[in-house]
Amino acid sequence: MKIGVIGAGAIGMFVSAKLSKSHDVTCYVRRDEQRLIINDEGIRLNDQTYRVASKLFDNLKNEDLLIICLKQTHLDSALKKLSENHPDTPMLFLQNGLSHIDKIKSLSQPILIGTCEHGVLRVSDYEVRHKGEGRIYLSAFEETTKELAKERISPIIDGDDFPVIFKDDLMSMLYEKLVINSVINPITALFQVENGKVLSNSHLKEIAYNLTVEGCEVLNLDENHMWKRVQQVAEHTSSNFSSMVYDIQKGNETEIESMNGYLLNISDQELPNHELIYHLIKAKEIM
Amino acid sequence: MKIGVIGAGAIGMFVSAKLSKSHDVTCYVRRDEQRLIINDEGIRLNDQTYRVASKLFDNLKNEDLLIICLKQTHLDSALKKLSENHPDTPMLFLQNGLSHIDKIKSLSQPILIGTCEHGVLRVSDYEVRHKGEGRIYLSAFEETTKELAKERISPIIDGDDFPVIFKDDLMSMLYEKLVINSVINPITALFQVENGKVLSNSHLKEIAYNLTVEGCEVLNLDENHMWKRVQQVAEHTSSNFSSMVYDIQKGNETEIESMNGYLLNISDQELPNHELIYHLIKAKEIM
Q1: Active site residue B2
Q2: In Å, how far is B272's CA from the nearest CA of chain A?
């Protein structure tokens, strides 16, 4: 299958490399510098090289599947170009949070939604390190794309060391990921520590638990189940730094608005823990 | 008056220097190195030198007044020696928080309690910089020491550029200081920023307000009044770093237990903001 991956950050490069074993992958990037080096060197993932083509996003051509690995904060500017793409080409969106859900409704193409739990570290413009085992969960965006997601896409990109799991319930899949991110990302970003510290530092663990409970109240999820899931992801990616750690380091805008900010927006009750942690990250952003 | 100041941290040195203009001050310290340099150089406060004697705390002799400027975390080990001091010598305690209140009940000497709002920066073992105008509030510990506090001590150590103000209500004086400290200290310590950032960073200001409101609920203080007081102190000491900033920097135990920890202990309701900020500082302590 011809697969176009939009965005070559940590997740984009990781997905491109993994899929390149059985598919014809083109990685669409913004900067010519990155395009050149990926074309020259391929993508290096854990000391192995994967041959992947790279093109500028402006030159997006038709593919059998597009996987959109842009961050929420970069999605807006890409939507117009995506909307102009071939009307039959399915698009799989792999974002954190839920802010994209409303935005991509306007697209006429068949839409799939996924979440990615792998811990991946971006080393350079063409190198990534897989630091935490995870899964890609995939769901249909609407009833009309269910067969596409379940029968035609999920089994094709699924692999032994790259499990893609179809989920029937889109929202609960997104909600689970949202809670996990809204706990692990801001805590690690605040202290610039790796994900494992969320469990190994007893005070951070206490905070993580309180954030989990509050998140579950808003989204009507089971606390015990979610607290297990949060711990699971923190363990599996314990030596990895969350994307928010890097955003703070680089002075980029973080995804806090689509995570804790989203929870605060949709909640009709007070969420003091999420509110405080939200303001702490926003405070750090403008320092 | 012969005044002994116990502890030569920022506040101890500042108080010693200020009082040395009209009084015979001896600064009691733990380390011989600091004793020697204060005896040789005096105390330097904002480029002026104040002649102050220094002795080791173990050699505590009788004075007309003792001012105890030790931190809460260093108070326990000094209490025995203090209890053996002359039974008539009044002691003025200048600590943050309220943890000392229970401890010093065992002393038979006349006790006064004070709070210090000056922003003072310790530069070295004998140098301090006065960075924020403030006041020393002074109160009687018990009915029996009221006349002593109001008539005999407060007017004597009061000075034009060193105002000492007698307060009738001990607990409200301590409570006000506790709220101010429990807001400004942990926020500044978390980000290692000066006090002014609590107001100039809009997100930190939001957090400060929420912490103030929660603190007032526990201690039954007026929110509007306290929010004004918090802002006042943050403004007056805007270029100063709180003691907790230095404790974190030096890897010392912070006074979080006697501040936010104290509020959490005495409250019969949830204080999510103070609880989260408490755990954030404890998390930072053990990093």
Answers
A1: no
A2: 6
* pLDDT tens for each residue of B256-285: 999 999 999 999 999 999 999 999 999 999
Q: Is some CB atom of chain A closer than 8 A to the CB atom of B190?
A: yes
Token readout for B107 is 């002393």
For residues A28-37, b (16+ Cβ closer than 10 Å) or e, as one string?
Answer: bbbeeebbeb
pLDDT value at position B57? 96
Residue B283's alpha-carbon distances to A190, A201, A248, B180, B243, in angstroms, are 11, 6, 19, 22, 18
Torsion angle (degrees, nearest 10) of CA A181, A186, A187, A191: 140
Q: Whole-angstrom Cα distance, residue A142 to residue B11?
A: 66
Report pLDDT digits (tens) over B49-108: 999 999 999 999 889 999 999 988 889 889 999 999 999 999 999 998 888 888 899 999
| Rounded CA separation A71/A11 (Å) | 10
**Topology at the third CATH level for domain A172-285:** N-(1-d-carboxylethyl)-l-norvaline Dehydrogenase; domain 2 (1.10.1040)
The answer, yes or no, to whether ipTM is higher than 0.85 is no
**What residues of A are labeled active site?**
177
pLDDT in tens, A172-189: 989 999 999 999 999 999
pLDDT (0 to 100) of residue B119:
86
Tens digits of residue pLDDT in B142-187: 999 999 999 999 999 998 889 999 999 998 889 999 999 999 999 9
**CATH code linked to domain B2-168:** 3.40.50.720
Residue B132 has pLDDT above 90, yes or no: no
* Facing residue for A283 by CB, picked from B203, B272, B276: B203
Interchain proximity B276–A279, CB inside 8 Å: no
Q: Are A6 and A118 in contact, with CB atoms under 8 Å apart?
A: no
pLDDT band (50, 70, 90) for residue A78 = very high
Q: Which backbone phi and psi does B49 adopt, to 5 degrees?
A: -105, 135
**Which residue, among B183, B203, B209, would best test binding to A if mutated, counting the most A CBs under 10 Å from its CB?**
B203
Nearest CA to A132 out of A11, A259, A43, A5 is that of A11
A-B contacts at Cβ under 8 angstroms = 62
Tokens linked to A59: 């030159």
Single-letter code of the amino acid located at A81: K
Report chain A residues whose CB lies below 8 A from the CB of B272.
Answer: 210, 272-273, 276
Cβ-Cβ contacts under 8 Å, B203 against chain A? 279-280, 282-283, 286
* E-strand stretches of A101-212: 111-116, 119-122, 127-132, 136-140, 164-166
Domain borders along chain B are: 2-168, 172-285
Q: What is the predicted pLDDT for the residue at B249?
A: 94
A254: phi then psi, degrees, rounded to nearest 5: -90, 175
C-alpha–C-alpha distance, residues B29 and B59, integer Å: 10
**Pair A66, A4: CB distance under 8 Å:** yes
Q: How far is B285 from B259, CA to CA, in rounded Å?
A: 15
